[in-house]
Write a structure and sequence with these properties.
single chain, 205 residues, alpha+beta, Methylamine Dehydrogenase, Chain H, four-stranded antiparallel β-sheet, 3 helices, 11 strands
Length: 205
């Protein structure tokens, strides 16, 4: 169980309620939910996450506990997540990690890094299964398709790539007219954010 929020905790109702709705949404596989808290360091993301863990609705929906993944600098210290809450540390990237996502069945984790690669990990053992190498600059975003067979990535090199999650093979590459910053897969649609706007693509499997 996460530590309770500090006494000086200042609620952020909009963000808090949006995350609660996302976590409690009907039809979502509760094993593999990606919820991003964005903002610079010191803006209360860790405290907000703690408050969510202590919300009665979340505790009722996740009676076995809530699994959080963190991302940041290599060998990042986790003062707010001491043993035994810290399950394992996944090490392998040579530079900062910019994003991560669970596969829909919760068995895999994909991570994106400024070292220009993505890595696929076994979430149970922490073993690195494969490295996805193909971008020519920092990778900023990653996501699984709903069936877990595909991984989508975006990079500062302006490319959106679609990968086979089982083999690591590049299946398709799309180039935008500027850096690509983030991506999400919803059903058969990919939404990707770039320096010049949002792009929508359809997955043809």
């Amino acid at each position: 169980m996460a530590d309770p929020p500090p006494q000086h905790f200042i609620p952020r109702p909009a963000e808090f309620d949006a995350l609660i709705r996302r976590l409690m949404a009907d039809g979502i596989n509760n094993v593999a939910i990606t919820a991003a808290l964005r903002g610079a360091g010191g803006y209360g993301k860790t405290t907000l996450a703690k408050a969510i863990c202590h919300d009665p609705r979340i505790q009722a929906a996740f009676p076995d506990g809530t699994l959080w993944t963190t991302l940041g600098q290599p060998k990042f210290d986790l003062p707010d997540l001491p043993h035994p809450a810290l399950i394992r540390t996944l090490e392998g990237h040579s530079f900062s990690v910019s994003g991560c996502a669970f596969s829909p069945d919760g068995k895999l984790i994909v991570s994106a890094s400024y070292d220009r690669t993505l890595k696929v990990w076994d979430s149970e053992t922490g073993q690195s299964l494969r490295t996805l190498d193909g971008h020519s600059s920092s990778v900023n975003g990653c996501a699984f398709s709903p069936d877990g067979k595909l991984i989508v990535s975006t990079s500062v090199d302006g490319a959106l790539k679609v990968w086979d999650s089982g083999t690591g093979q590049t299946l398709a590459t799309f180039f935008a007219d500027g850096p690509m910053l983030c991506c999400v897969v919803y059903g058969e649609m990919i939404a990707a954010g770039g320096a010049r706007g949002v792009y929508f693509l359809w997955l043809a499997q």
